[in-house]
Write a structure and sequence with these properties.
By secondary structure, the chain is mainly α. Helix content is about 35%, strand content about 5%. The chain contains 10 helices and 4 strands. It has a 4-stranded parallel β-sheet with strand order 1-2-3-4, covered by helices on one side. α1 runs antiparallel to α6 and α4 packs parallel to α6. The longest helix is centred in the first third of the chain and has 24 residues. It is globular and about 60 Å long.
Length: about 425
């Protein structure tokens, strides 16, 4: 490392240390910022046992082939829409800014129940307790692109040897979850822990050449902060700055401990868009009281004014994410890049000629259905192939304006090659 690089790295860590120190002194400590007796080994074991029982009680739902929640299967006689030969380098590139889709060998994700695909194949309340991880938009690899159009299933067309995607219904401790670190109920505070756990899991996997393989990680978290915890905070307006520090810490850890890594940061879709759907089925109205209690019901004296405040805080969190990924310490690196992919920032449920397309939503009208996960996976894929400043901010019906690598633009776009 050059002297200039050493000075830059020392300065970076010094600035980060001061930011963290400032946060400790000035930002409030809230329920999501601390551990409790529930985090002890014995309590985790009990929770694990309960979750295993619940998994067996509900049963696997993700293998269903019929239901309003499923995407239309792509006919077998229709070829994959991209020229595969343009999507993979002859030899692994040395720069992340010359990375093609097929150069990715390992895929991973960090997030909450949206990334766990909770209830994606649900047609009853019981089905909401199953995590259909094989159907998850950014990390599910069940079946193939024709009936589960997720990001991994698209990437598998370019590199059939891709590893890390979730294989089917699974909870976090099941083998099928693979490199999907998502946890139901996870909050922004959990990001640094997830980053450390992810690196350990990938490093220890014998299928992975840790130093040589290119890795793709998608991070999407914050929905539980906004839905369930912001209204319990002593100083809710601190949340965006806390989110900033946690995201910086997680990205720094990935950058410093996992070579050859491309990171997508995807903002949680607007909570207001989901909880304010109309007409809202009665079961969804009831479930939203528990899933998004800061917005729905009377438990926390919800008002139009409080909901407007939470909306503004979520908008600030999105702004923070856009700022963090552009920080100088994450730019102009050969083996690390992070990009904000904005497909979720202007999302609408007014689709396919309907005022609300409920087929995109799970049984609770809150999580995404399998079809919704396919829309999201395709939207993320398109964002990765769109230059910075020209990325779409909404999802579209499958294969409407589907993007492909071209001879002129074969690489995944970063802030330094757009």
């Amino acid at each position: 490392m050059s002297a200039a690089a050493s000075v830059r790295k020392i300065s970076t860590y010094g600035i980060t240390f001061l930011l963290v120190l400032h946060a400790v002194i000035t930002l409030s400590v809230d329920v999501t910022d601390q551990t409790t007796s529930l985090d002890t080994g014995s309590m985790r074991d009990m929770f694990h046992t309960f979750r295993e029982w619940m998994f067996n009680f509900v049963g696997r739902t993700g293998m269903r082939t019929r239901g309003y929640f499923l995407q239309d299967k792509i006919p077998d006689d229709l070829p994959f829409p991209c020229n595969i030969s343009l999507g993979r380098s002859d030899r692994p590139p040395k720069s992340v800014h010359k990375l093609r889709p097929g150069d990715i060998s390992v895929i991973a994700a960090m997030g909450d129940s949206l990334t766990a695909a909770s209830g994606a194949a649900s047609d009853s309340m019981l089905g909401l307790y199953m995590e259909n991880r094989g159907l998850a938009w950014c990390i599910g690899g069940q079946w193939n692109w024709r009936n589960v159009t997720t990001l991994p299933n698209i990437l598998k067309e370019f590199n059939p040897k891709l590893v890390g995607y979730s294989l089917g219904d699974a909870y976090p401790f099941h083998r099928e979850t693979q490199f999907n670190m998502a946890e139901i109920g996870a909050v922004s505070y959990d990001m640094p822990f997830m980053a450390r756990a992810l690196v350990r899991r990938i490093r220890s996997d014998p299928r992975v050449d840790f130093k040589r393989d290119w890795k793709l990680v998608t991070i999407s978290i914050g929905g539980n902060d906004i839905c369930s915890f912001v209204c319990t905070m002593q100083h809710p307006d601190d949340l965006p700055e806390k989110h900033r520090l946690r995201m910086i810490k997680a990205l720094q850890y990935l950058r410093d401990n996992m070579p050859r890594t491309f990171v997508n940061v995807v903002s949680i879709p607007s909570v207001e868009t989901v909880v304010s759907i109309s007409p809202k089925p009665g079961i969804c109205h009831t479930l939203h009281h528990g899933e998004c209690s800061c917005w729905v019901g009377k438990l926390y004296n919800q008002t139009d004014s409080s909901r407007a405040r939470w909306r503004r805080i979520q908008e600030e969190m999105v702004k923070v994410e856009m700022e963090v990924v552009k920080m100088d310490e994450f730019r102009r690196l050969d083996e690390f890049a992070v990009v904000h992919q904005p497909w979720s920032t202007n999302i609408t449920l007014k689709m396919n000629g309907r005022s609300v397309d409920y087929s995109l939503l799970a049984y609770d009208c809150f999580h995404m259905s399998q079809k919704g996960n396919a829309y999201a996976g395709t939207a993320l894929w398109n964002n990765m192939l769109q230059p910075v400043g020209s990325k779409t901010t909404n999802w579209k019906p499958l294969f409407e304006n589907f993007k492909c690598p071209t001879a002129k633009a074969p690489y995944l776009f970063t802030y330094d090659n757009s």
